[in-house]
Fold this protein.
Amino acid sequence: MDHRDTLIESIAREATSWRRELHQNPQTMYEETYAAGFVAARLTEWGIPHETGIGGTGVVATIEGQPTDGAPTIAFRADMDALDLTEETGLPWASKNPGKMHGCGHDGHTATVLALGRYLQQTKRFHGKVRLVFQPAEEGGRGAYRMVDEGLLSRFPFDEIYGFHNWPYLPKGEFSICSGFMLAASDSFELTLSGKGGHAAMPHVCTDVIVAGSHLVSAWQSLVSRSTDPQQAAVLSVTNFVAGTGAHNVLPRGASLSGTVRTYSPQLRDMMERRMAEMAHATASMFGMEASFTYHRITDPVWNHQDNVAYASQVVEKLFGSQRLKPFVPVMGGEDFGHFLEKRPGCFIALGQAEPDPASPHSQGVHTTRYDFNDEIIPMAVAYFAELAETRLAAR
Ligand SMILES: [Zn+2]
Ligand SMILES: [Zn+2]
């Protein structure tokens, strides 16, 4: 172990206690005042200049390295928000906020980037500048978009950006990377059907929103199976279908349906939006009722830049050996980190955190009640980011 590894290990041990404190105090979508306050307090303590309130609760810090003419600036991003989920881990650091939980490991991402800041400020073995971007509202709140809208790129310019997500679907310590599409565009939709309710034994004088809605759910599925090129990926999931009063003998007047659509290709995304609306209105008219349909584009896909992926892969091989570097198989999950990558080159990676024991909280899927971030991956992620800062900035 060289000096750097020893220093990173000791900072990471401290970061474990920060992570657990953040875990105990989860907040969601633009309410992350605890995490933002915690981050700002540590940065102040270490003398790292930073600004708060960027995109709601976002925090951006800047660390100056060795002054070098024309040296670029590199950014590292952590998300800070939790989920509306009731934790069932029973761990000593379990959530103290009822109904809120760090069920996606953003507590770990925040602690990691904070640890990176501590290391870089202490060592300054890099050229140019490093920015640390602590982002709110990744979970469906478009926090990355809001930070960019509020001037992130003009107020705190950077040339490249990197981030990671803990990945309980891979063994602890495996770095999984791919070029191009990694995660999908994530959209949502809502539909209301309005008909004429009435006595369930006299359907001929009513219009049945449940029958119409059921036809539509089936018809929409054909957009994936019949209207999508089989070589491309699309998901359409109806996740809510609400109708009825609970009575056995009343046909309800209205039904509401909602769900999610995932795609990579922009053309396919356009097609899904257009055809879903057409089918909703056509089905409503076929059954003699009204439909109101809305489609929301939430986040764009995560598309990794080839040159940055190649460099990041070299870094992993150098630090951990080629056996720890795995190709990432794209999934249809969404991440608003994709918006940063639309603005600047960079790459997002998945870092495995599963333990051999399938019952371990580190082996549970994200967004489940028994999941917990694995603190043992903090030093690995810090070393990866630190090496990027120290060599990428000098190499360019
Ligand atoms: Zn999540
Ligand atoms: Zn997440």
Summary: The chain has two domains: 3-184+301-395, 185-299. The domain at 185-299 is CATH 3.30.70.360 (Alpha-Beta Plaits).
